[in-house]
Specification:
Elements: H1 16-34, H2 38-47, H3 50-60, H4 67-76, E1 80-85, E2 88-94, E3 100-102, E4 108-109, H5 113-118, E5 120-122, H6 126-137, H7 146-159, H8 165-174, H9 178-195, H10 198-211, H11 217-225, H12 235-285, H13 292-314, H14 324-346, H15 355-377, E6 393-396, E7 399-402, H16 403-425, H17 427-437, H18 439-444, H19 449-471, H20 483-495, H21 501-522, H22 524-541
Antiparallel strand pairs: 1-2, 1-5, 2-3, 3-4, 6-7
Helix pairs in contact: 2-3, 7-9, 8-9, 9-10, 10-12, 11-12, 12-16, 12-17, 12-19, 12-20, 12-21, 13-14, 13-15, 13-19, 14-19, 16-17, 17-19, 20-21, 21-22
């Protein structure tokens, strides 16, 4: 029978209007129920009788709010006070900021000296502390943040305490996120290694093998070494552990290879950005710019200054701060391009086709610029924070790829595309290609060679600064940050053929990947030496690089 009800002006028999009123009423009641937050329950628990505490403890176990841990810690250590007044009693928390706050809503209030003296310190009973500890330990399993739930599951599993198994099993039944479910399964399997019967232990080992659990590696090795415990270690269990360890080792090697490949790709992307400008200026002007690395540092320092401007204007925790890196990219390019333009007009234009003189002069400019950075910013590295949207990793087939390195690869692709469009679809690009092929012929045909030189050198310096801006997100920003890349950049230019951008791009990716793939087995130093040896042998075979030019203009 359809009910007759009167609420919020809804009266009479059932109609569409009345059903709508019923839905509104249900929504209001649901909202009122959800308004009962963790603070309210904690405040009630502190004043509840022993018979009422069990229900409130059960209710608290459904929350994932970290405020529960904060309030309980204050309660346990004597930071909660009860103030009884004529109007009723109030529970207060004395915070780390030396302020009084209401427990049930966190509102800060002021107390007179008499009221502060009258407030009585509250502490939980021993039995209640034991129950609360279990809630606090498993609080992270119910957190809204996925990463927190994963971290909490892994932490509980590694403790191998039997008391956490029910909480892990209960959470696994309701968890919907695939990554969190995997972490819960891994945590349960690790826990059963220490607490299960023989059949459960073997099943846990097989689960860890299927998950390729790197975290379980040490526990499995410990289990295999317990040869003296015949009740726990039999042949089937030992074989299962051995198979699981082999599978995990194979998985770790695959992850290490793909990790090195990904890091090599991102390192090659940085080299590509830095060396593109060097390839253009070297191929066009014949100038060996040893100060190219300092323009990388300019990009890093400009990013640092833009970051500080955003912090001073909007604050570090504001949503606007996340945009600073997007703004820093074009600003660093423009600043470095302007400085490069001034440098070309005042110094570089007198050094065309004079490699030795340009090398010595730009090396001196490099020293001057480094000292200038030290005078302005100090000798120590400066801190550049990552925007929040660049923090974290993208998971693909169990492999983690950082958002920062993915952005670097994307920026490198954008630089390649824009440089190609500049050289192929604009008059400036046509003039640059003409001058690179034959400077004197281009000049005789009316190409403004001097202006092309200025614009090209400014473009090269701006690209170097872009490399410095992206490097600020994965490394330190300091006076000599560009020196680590200047040698590699020249190797990229020479190996890829002087003035050939396709060769520079392929060479940058090749050098970056080979370097990162060799480092895990040979170490950073020997890996770098091996790369240089390979480059030397390659140049002995192909002195002109990957794509040697057919122009005779470089012989002038």
């Amino acid at each position: 029978m359809i009910p007759h009800f009167s609420f919020l002006g809804c009266s009479g028999k059932s109609t569409v209007k009345h059903w709508i009123c019923l839905l509104i009423t249900a929504a209001i009641l649901t909202s009122a129920a959800s308004a009962r937050d963790a603070r309210t329950v904690m405040a009630e628990l502190m004043q509840a009788e022993r018979a009422e505490q069990a229900g409130l403890i059960e209710e608290l176990s459904t929350y994932g709010d970290t405020i529960i841990a904060d309030i309980y810690e204050a309660w346990r250590t004597g930071g909660i006070y009860l103030l009884e007044q004529d109007g009723g009693s109030q529970l207060l928390q004395f915070t780390d900021a030396q302020e009084w706050a209401l427990v049930h809503n966190g509102a800060v209030i002021s107390l007179s000296e008499a009221e502060a003296a009258a407030a009585k310190k509250q502490r939980p009973a021993r039995a209640l502390r034991k129950q609360m500890k279990r809630i606090i330990d498993t609080l992270g399993l119910k957190a809204d943040n996925t990463a927190l739930r994963i971290d909490s599951a892994i932490k509980l599993g590694r403790s191998q305490k039997a008391e956490f198994i029910p909480a892990l099993e209960a959470r696994l039944k309701v968890e919907t996120d695939k990554q969190v479910r995997s972490a819960l399964q891994e945590a349960l399997a690790i826990s059963w290694l220490a607490n299960g019967e023989d059949a459960q232990v073997v099943e846990a080992v097989q689960t860890l093998k299927a998950l390729n659990s790197v975290a379980a590696r040490a526990f499995l090795e410990e289990l295999m070494q317990a040869e003296g415990d015949n009740e726990r270690v039999d042949s089937s269990l030992s074989d299962a552990c051995a198979e699981a360890l082999i599978s995990i080792e194979r998985h770790m090697k695959q992850q290490e290879f793909f990790g090195s490949f990904f890091r090599g790709f991102s390192t090659g992307s940085v080299l590509l950005i830095v060396s593109f400008g060097l390839a253009i200026t070297f191929g066009l002007m014949g100038v060996i710019n040893m100060a190219h690395g300092e323009f990388v540092a300019i990009g890093g320092y400009v990013t640092f200054l833009v970051q500080n401007f955003f912090i001073q204007t909007w604050g570090l925790s504001s949503s606007a701060f996340g945009w600073y890196f997007i703004v820093a990219l074009p600003v660093s390019f423009i600043v470095a391009a302007v400085i490069g333009l001034i440098m070309e007009v005042s110094i570089i234009r007198f050094l065309y086709r004079r490699p030795l003189e340009s090398l010595l002069c730009t090396w001196g400019i490099s020293m001057v610029m480094q000292q200038g950075f030290r005078l302005i910013f100090g000798a120590a590295n400066v801190q550049v924070n990552n925007p929040t949207w660049l923090m974290g990793n993208l998971s693909f087939a169990g492999f983690q790829m950082s958002y920062t390195r993915l952005l670097i690869i994307l920026i490198a692709l954008v630089v390649v595309a824009l440089t190609w469009l500049l050289l192929r679809q604009t008059n400036l690009g046509l003039h640059i290609r003409a001058v690179m092929q034959n400077r004197h012929m281009a000049s005789s045909l009316g190409v403004p060679v001097a202006r092309v030189n200025r614009m090209t050198f400014a473009l090269g310096c701006g690209l170097a600064a872009l490399g410095g801006a992206v490097l600020s997100q994965i490394g330190n920003v300091g006076p000599s940050m560009g020196q680590a890349y200047i040698v590699d950049s020249f190797m990229v230019v020479v190996t890829g053929s002087v003035g050939n951008l396709l060769g520079a791009g392929l060479s940058a990716m090749g050098i970056g990947m080979v370097d990162q793939l060799l480092q895990p087995s040979l170490g950073p130093v020997m890996g770098k030496i091996t790369v240089f040896v390979v480059i030397i042998l390659f140049l002995q075979w192909r002195p002109g690089g990957l794509f040697p030019t057919l122009s005779r203009s470089l012989d002038d």
